[in-house]
UniProtKB/TrEMBL annotation:
Protein name listed in UniProt: Peptidase U32 family protein
Superkingdom field: Bacteria
Record keywords: Hydrolase, Protease
Keyword Hydrolase tagged: yes
Organismal lineage: Bacteria, Pseudomonadati, Campylobacterota, Epsilonproteobacteria, Campylobacterales
Family: Belongs to the peptidase U32 family.
UniProt organism field: Helicobacter cappadocius
């Protein structure tokens, strides 16, 4: 895939609900993935989509020339097979652009029930080599979402043997300490089965170590930092923004995928915007990893790692974060502009006279203005908003507004839907 290649790499973003789907698309994703029901491996995210809103999301994407891939990537029990058949048929009726499937039996079932819908093989199928890739390709799989443990070298090898098979890799988001998500800890401790979409993230909890004397049965706690315990399983988050050039140079990768259907609206927008910039920069011959990283570090994260794509797992000593389950990003999101662009909702304490950076979808125009409600101005390529007055939709005026307040706040000028207002955290 050289710079002049007509087929550009696809950017695929998570869509946990209708708003996040729209945000991801507005901010630069070429395609999104999401699902309805417990067959989609993200119960908590999936609950936010019902059939109607999912259909609306697919229509929204299609009207903008973007794609939607449906997650049907759980591992079903025998008792669920009838439900699964109905679910596949129902999803096919919505005319999505692909199904993301993990189990070989479900691949075959989907081909039978919905022969026209392309199949993408989920990362849960753990494909790492040419042999497995070939089996799934022969079953009619169009694209494989590689196991996160795959190296770029192996991706190139698979592509060499099966040039028609599309390859998709993860470039950003939560990592799992188990092999590509095949884990039972949450089921054992919480009765929440990870591969049925309701993982409780037990790997992120604080654990305490004890040693036991087998003769006396005495248990002694191994001291860690008081009250904190230790994070023994907590993987850092994947972040490959600095490696987009290497990934695209190799020519073997068709799509870059971002993890995070249960993450915030700001995460959906900011990751899509940043990776889309990195991809477009690549095709223009520009490379600015510091800028991408600065943006991505505005997000809450568990520390970042470049995972296993560039180096082998046994060479890695920095993929775990033993100190905290999640840390704040370098920025705080203060507001999110609604769909009509006239008002924003407060997400964090917002005051008059304070400059808030405007983070908007790509390729939109922002009008500079100065009136009694506030001022929008530009400074070194960035736009800022200062409110002179905080006036709510119900015309009430406040000196400042806090995150618990659900009343929309008037903007001095219309901003693009789903624009974010942010400030640097101290």
């Amino acid at each position: 895939m050289s710079h002049n290649s007509s087929k550009k790499v696809q950017l695929l973003s998570p869509a946990g609900n209708l708003t996040k789907l729209k945000i991801a698309i507005d901010y630069g994703a070429d395609a999104v993935y999401g699902g309805v029901s417990h067959f989609s491996l993200r119960n908590r995210a999936g609950k936010d989509f019902n059939l109607e809103s999912f259909k609306e999301g697919i229509d929204y994407a299609h009207s903008r020339g973007k794609k939607v891939f449906v997650t049907i990537n759980g591992f079903p029990f025998n008792s669920q097979l009838k439900l699964l058949e109905n679910h596949i048929a129902k999803m096919a009726d919505l005319s999505p652009d692909a199904f993301i499937v993990a189990a070989p039996g479900v691949v075959r079932l989907s081909k039978k029930i919905a022969p026209t819908i392309p199949i993408h093989l989920s990362t849960q199928a753990n494909v790492l080599n040419v042999l497995d890739a070939e089996v799934f390709y022969e079953m009619g799989v169009k694209r494989i979402v590689a196991a996160r443990e795959l190296s770029l070298k192996d991706a190139i090898e698979i592509k060499k043997y099966i040039p028609d098979l599309e390859l998709e890799i993860f470039v950003h988001g939560s990592m799992c300490f188990a092999f590509s998500g095949r884990c039972l800890i949450s089921a054992l401790q919480n009765g929440r089965v990870p591969n049925r979409g309701s993982c409780a993230n037990d790997c992120r909890f604080d654990y305490e170590y004890y040693v036991k004397n087998p003769d006396s049965g005495v248990m002694m706690r191994l001291e860690e930092e008081e009250g904190v315990g230790t994070h023994i399983f907590n993987s850092k988050d994947l972040n490959l923004a600095s490696y987009v050039k290497e990934i695209l140079d190799c020519g073997a990768i068709d799509a870059l995928k971002i993890e995070g259907r249960t993450k915030s609206t700001y995460y959906a927008g900011l990751t899509a915007r940043t990776y889309k910039m990195a991809i477009e920069d690549y095709y223009k011959g520009i490379y600015r990893p510091e800028f991408y990283q600065e943006e991505l570090h505005t997000l809450k994260n568990r520390g970042f790692t470049d995972g296993y794509l560039i180096r082998r797992p046994h060479e890695r000593l920095d993929t775990q974060n033993h100190f905290s389950a999640i840390s704040e990003g370098s920025y705080q999101v203060n507001g999110e502009v609604g769909e009509n662009g006239k008002y924003f909702l407060c997400k964090y304490t917002t005051k008059t006279g304070c400059p808030y950076e405007i983070v908007a979808p790509r390729n939109v125009e922002i009008k500079c203005i100065d009136n009694e409600i506030g001022k929008i101005y530009q400074e070194n390529e960035k736009f800022y908003l200062i409110l002179n007055k905080i006036i709510l939709e119900n015309n009430k005026e406040l000196p400042e507004i806090h995150s618990g307040n659900v009343n929309p706040v008037l903007l001095p000028e219309i901003l693009p839907p789903y624009t974010f207002l942010r400030t640097k955290t101290n």
